[in-house]
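Hi there, hope your week has been kind to you so far. Thanks so much in advance, here it is.
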Amino acid sequence: QVQLVESGGGLVQAGGSLRLSCTASGRTFSRLAMGWFRQAPGKEREFVASISGRAGRTSNADSVKGRFTISRDNAKSTVYLQMNSLKPEDTAVYYCAADPTFGGVGPHEYEYWGQGTQVTVSS
């Protein structure tokens, strides 16, 4: 079992930055593939970014490329999402996800989920 706790959400003006953090417990963190997803009201949960366990290979959704960066600190069992140049359309609940195998870009590819943190970008 893996427990995930997100933090760092909040209200920011367009063009601003936020950094989300997600701390994991319960399994060897370096072996977990980690991902960030988001869900806006009335929309499906969508992929934002992912990072593999040992190699740290990253993948980003086209909508956030060049603005968001995913990283991980295995010593702290924490994954981060640095969000720059935020836009109103980035407003959503952001979820951290973990998987002991490969992860991916689909929500169904992750076994464990955090409770979510709200990000609101005002225009």
Remarks:
- The radius of gyration is 13 Å.
- Residues 16 and 85 are 5 Å apart (CA to CA).
